[in-house]
Sequence to fold (386 residues):
Amino acid sequence: MAATDTRAQIVEAADQLFYERGFEHTSFADIAAQVQISRGNFYYHFRTKDEILDAVIRQRLENTQAMLDDWEAEGAGPAERITSFIQILIVNQSKIMAFGCPVGTLTSELAKLGHPSQAGAAGLFSLFRHWLARQFALMGHEAADADRLALHLLARSQGVATLASALRDPAFVEGEVQEMCSWLAAQTSSCLQ
Amino acid sequence: MAATDTRAQIVEAADQLFYERGFEHTSFADIAAQVQISRGNFYYHFRTKDEILDAVIRQRLENTQAMLDDWEAEGAGPAERITSFIQILIVNQSKIMAFGCPVGTLTSELAKLGHPSQAGAAGLFSLFRHWLARQFALMGHEAADADRLALHLLARSQGVATLASALRDPAFVEGEVQEMCSWLAAQTSSCLQ
DNA sequence: GACTTTCTCGGACAATTGTCCTAATCACGA
DNA sequence: TCGTGATTAGGACAATTGTCCGAGAAAGTC
Fold:
């Protein structure tokens, strides 16, 4: 097996396990078992657990950016793109009800640990924030307003994710998503005036 | 020192440390150091770490209920009481920006651990949910609607807390709190019609 | 086929974890 | 003052943690 493959597999497994079990509660042994390599083999690819975390965060940043680029490339308008964002709550509903939002829960955990990579994880929020702000700007909102709306929507989806994993009630998630879509429509019409 | 005092001190220290560092990242040694008792002394008061967690959750349930009862006892109307709830985000702003919401972060962590006490921790949400729903009902909303509004407000405050600890931006928190108050006012007037 | 670099294995390491036991200390009534 | 039960201290325990080493297998080059 090529080294790059092994490395990629480690990052992939760590990404998944950090999400499902949390960073601290995931051990080298857990990742090794998932990838089916020996625990000692880690040292060749990653010297410390923090290095794995950094690699995971970097991969998430890349994947998220790619997803946002895809949405941007689609022909639809900014409002439809924002709807794609809101719909993540539906698309990933079962995982979110089990483990919460991957971005929110990781930053929360790292904040409590006082971990140096917390800023990096928070960068995932920035990606969404600026992408959403650009969409709102395209809808006709001025910069400061667009950023405010972006943060507002980000916060609401975070709240839905947190409560979804506590309540495990699909109807709640669907209801809140619908309300967010209505809210989005209101932001649209307020610009057409 | 009386045994009940020691026990209360352990629960108090554990409560604080579970919030600031997370349940898993807090060790017996950490709590013992905080309370200044020997590590071995724990076994007399609590047989397992899970027992401490249960005691912490029980205390939080009692404290929360007491806080809600206090708000209820105050002479103001339901809208003012709901405002008290929203204002927690301001009152506890610095702690929330550092460690997030104690309820949301604990339930998230326990969900990832697959911990049996997750349901107990989620009970904290139920306390707020039903209290808020009662306030909305007093404002004239019918039961199903009141519950929906309660969950909506709960989710929004959760989202603000999560994003607050990631961004650490007081202006964002204050802006969102103001928007929630405006939203609350709209719910009020919609009932007066 | 020989050689060198890249990669992997199994195990060792000190530290820390939650758990548990025993002996000593305390408070307090008889 | 003695004795009894409640409380505490200190340390032992097996298991697990992240980290690291050295021997060897695999892969690629000449």
Remarks:
- Residues 27-29, 39-40, 42-43, 47-49 of chain B lie near DNA strand C (CB under 10 Å from a C1').
- The mean pLDDT of chain B is 95.
